[in-house]
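Case study: Non-heme chloroperoxidase.
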Amino acid sequence: MPTITTKDGVEIFFKDWGSGQPIVFSHGWPLSSDDWDAQMMYFVTRGYRVIAHDRRGHGRSAQVADGHDMDHYADDLAAVTAHLDLKNAIHVGHSTGGGEVVHYIARHGESRVAKAAILSAVPPLMVQTAANPGGLPKSVFDDLQKQLAASRTQFYRDLASGPFYGFNRPGAKPSEAVIQNWWRQGMMGGAKAHYDGIVAFSQTDFTEDLKKINVPVLVMHGDDDQIVPYADSGPLSAKLLKKGTLKTYKGFPHGMPTTHAETINADLLAFFKE
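Here is what the predicted structure looks like once written out:
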């Protein structure tokens, strides 16, 4: 399997398909690069080079005990892009991966980056603070950690079959295959990485990162996102970005790159070609 080893000795798995302008995909918690299948297949057949890695502790990357924070996530992404010597790359991040992309660009600069898109993404800040009164109370994330520690297998089943894809909404038609694939990806990763990752995605403040970014960024968010609530995420990120464009999807769930891949892919392609 293609892997790189980071400077702190962590083996990171990645996929690298096709040729042309590179698109680098950063996945959400607690999944893997497999969550981008619908996008990678679409763009590799349209003349792009598509790259996606499994975050440390996730998927096929090493299940290390430490480094499950946004600084390490961004540095690992930088290590992949440097190893492949990517130039003029477009970065696409979903959920936690959206935070990873924002932090990577702000932390490592834009010399390799052309554009970015963040989908259902965690920035600017998920947790409620005095400065972020619209955020979710810390007790919400403490409870997620508690459920994960008690029974990760049940917790992941409940998330995938309920709020992640909006399968708990009236009239929704749950896909057993999609639920099982989410569960499969989650269970491939390490419990410690996923437990710590809840703090990383909920308590990292990306406000200053967003302000630093000069490349065009498309902010895509569904207004029925039950995981990263719309009002305190997408619109705020778009405002903080110098060249941010907000695209709001009526009724779309958190997992919209999977449930509404046709719409999302077409909109991404239009943005890439601008």
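For the exam, be able to explain this: The two ends are 35 Å apart (CA to CA).
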